[in-house]
Amino acid sequence: MKIIKGNQQVRQAARDYENYSSNLQGDQDVRDYKQLPLEVDPPDHTALRELLNPWFSKDAVKAFEPEFSDIAKSLIDSFSDEVEIAHELALQMIVQCLGVVFGRPQDVAEWYSWGPDTWITDEDGIRHGDHLDRYLLKTFDELDEKPTDDLFGVLNRAEIAGRALTRKEKYGIANLVLAGGRDTVVKLISGCLWHLAQNQEHRETLRSNPELIPDFITEMVRFLSPLPMMHRVDVAETANPEDPKYVWLSFISANQDSSVITDPEQIKLDRGANPHLGFGYGRHSCIGMHLAQLEAKIVLELWLEKFSTWEVLPESELLFDFEEYKFIPSRFHSLSLKINS
Ligand code: HEM
Fold this sequence. Notes:
Blueprint: E1 2-4, H1 7-15, E2 20-21, H2 44-56, H3 58-62, H4 65-77, E3 82-84, H5 85-101, H6 108-113, E4 120-121, E5 127-128, H7 130-145, H8 151-157, E6 159-160, E7 163-164, H9 167-179, H10 183-198, H11 200-208, H12 213-224, E8 229-234, E9 246-250, H13 251-255, H14 289-306, E10 310-312, E11 317-319, E12 331-334, E13 336-339
Parallel strand pairs: 1-9
Antiparallel strand pairs: 2-8, 3-13, 4-5, 6-7, 8-9, 10-13, 11-12
The structure holds protoporphyrin IX containing FE (HEM).
């Protein structure tokens, strides 16, 4: 499949929805509805995104900082000696914070049980989504019976262009806000602690200057590119809409483009301007970026306050399978750390 690479080229394509359309149905092996607002173009995209914006704005998310800090503190306080970060810290933090933002703490244990990918992959590598279908059916049936003012309750009564949302549209929105910030944030939090385990200078600088943590997180979003590529329909190449031809937008190539980022393979605390596309670009850029950044900032602040040195244990399962960028971890199946002090 064609891949669009380079910082300027990806920006341009991400803006150009008439030629590179998001009107598609992904993950056909595990769902028969579109993830929304991701898989539509304007004008539907605009209306759906407006529905979600109030829950994900910088100010809305910031208001939850005290609750997020309590969550991170209780997780980090329970660690000593050895800990597996990807699940016991990152995924726990993510699902508990979503429980707060979405107003559904009663669902947190169930969300955690799905693992970092939302879909469950069996031993034969086949993905399953039935558990999610059951959850969405049960949740929206309950909301029909007993309306609530939490995110899903509001979605259940929402209208766009003067009509109620269909069930599948509600599923598509709920699915995406549950799935979008899981493996991506797991990679971000794990990647930050993986890097700092190995880089004493960065560890000490950030401990003495915690105000640098947000810029470090931005740099790690660039370096890791937790969502490395997304596809679009190549409109010019598609003769039959039933048989769409796809093209990839490579956010990772944009983040490793040396024409706009000096020494892109290095992680720098003093990078200054950082024109990365780790959260995408244009209309579909990540709605959860403030949430992801706040979750990571709180975890790092508390972790650095409590621990001075730690090391990556050999049983950790990291993947480095980005073809052109073998130095970037593509996945933290697990990250086991030994805390020294
Ligand atoms: C480090 C963490 C994250 C990264 C790197 C990331 C990355 C991205 C990227 C690259 C896109 C653009 C996709 C495209 O253009 O096709 C995107 C869209 C999106 N993200 Fe994130 N994401 C992260 C966290 C989150 C979180 C925490 C949430 C919500 C809980 C979230 C929800 C979404 C949604 C709903 C969209 C679709 C927006 C739209 O179509 O208008 N993401 N994300």
